[in-house]
Amino acid sequence: MIAGQRLRELVDYRDLLTNLTIRDLKLKYKGSVLGVGWSLLNPLIMMAIYYVVFSLFLRVFVLPNYWAFVLGGLLVWIFTAQALTSSAIAFVRTSSLITKVYFPIETLPIANVLAHFVNFVIMLAILLPILLLAGVHLGPSLVLLPVILLAHLAFAIGLGLFLATLTVYFRDLEHVITLAINALFYLTPVLYPLDPAALPRAAARFIPYATANPLAWFLDSYHSVLYYGLWPDPGQFTAMLAAALVALVGGYAFFSWLRPRIPEEV
Asked: How far apart are CA 21 and CA 77, in angstroms?
């Protein structure tokens, strides 16, 4: 009942959510010469470094167009990392606003996630023609990209609400999240495939542990449609959709449970 009222209230304040999202986008590029170009330049530089190190120097991964695999994975990871780190501090960084004005405060972390999501979609729109021009095969499975994007967005919003609420009570969590995301980068298949044939024998045995990571389900689905041109693995795709639903419902339920105390604790 209470959750339903909060959702209706969130819909009523949709203009506020839109304005907060636009504000976050403007703040991201305020005073920047290249503007949105920086969002592509950063993963391009990182992609070049990882490509040279892992594909040319160490020759760890045997993949055609390895740069495309890495670039797609980096764009996905950067959105995830930025969305979670920014939404986690959404309440504690706006404490004066929360204590003085009444509004659906969940719009704060949601707007943070949406701003990064809009930026992410723009980067993917730029990436797709680059992949086509480079001869990377994009098959019929590309029709699933909107589904993966929406599931990813739901997952990020749910986790963002959970972390934003938890950070109000445990302020050190802000720093823990940054460390955890840095560690998860190497435990998530951003730079490497979940294909034993493309990995060194010693590394291939760790694939079952990597696939236990929910973020791996999203990365694998993105790589399937944007790099391999294949349909995602049905089991992992289903697990991805389930993870998105659990994160969104669970995150919002956790926030709703502690919502009455947040203005006092923040």
From this structure: 20
